[in-house]
Prior knowledge:
With 179 residues, the protein is of the alpha+beta class. The protein has helices spanning 5-16, 21-28, 32-46, 59-67, 89-100, 116-125, 148-159, 167-178; strands at residues 101-104, 109-114, 134-135, 142-146. It has two domains: 5-46; 71-178, Endonuclease I-creI (Roll). A hairpin with a 6-residue loop joins strand 3 and strand 4. Helix 7 crosses helix 8 (167-178). The N and C termini lie far apart (46 Å).
Amino acid sequence: MKYSVETKKKAIEYYLVGYSAQKVACLIGANEATIRKWINEAKMKCGKNPSYYVSLTSRHMYESLSNYGIVPQKTGFEIFPDNIPKVYIRDFIRGVFDGDGITDIRRFRSGFVGSNNLVNRILVELNRCDLSIFNTKSKNICYFLGGKKFSRELFEYMYNDSTLYLKRKYERMKYICNN
Length: 179
């Protein structure tokens, strides 16, 4: 049976928001093997973890976001804002981790990647200036990684009494800490 491009897109959207391939098959009216084929094709096109973008056409919205440091092509120029209230620093760091955190489940370690300013400030806030910062091939981008002990400390710091986080990163950190 032939399916429209829109039907395929809808099936992949359902899958990306958390429906199982079996549930998507029921919703779309296709068999599960077809749904899995579409999902695998989509993964090949956009990588293992697809990324998304936001397009703004409102000048007011663009200027408002710019005032908060959200600017185009900021990779390597991220800054750790000075005006974050102390009670929200942990939330900010967890948000950065959700976006640019490193979880190496093969070597049981974790860390951050970003600009020198951002990475250094995170280490200061975590009171872990003992960890080495490494430069990447890309200009202005560096990273640090800590082992299992650091990962456990980071996990406790970020997720203790927290309800808002990226589940995928949380699960990977939990795996690192428990194995």
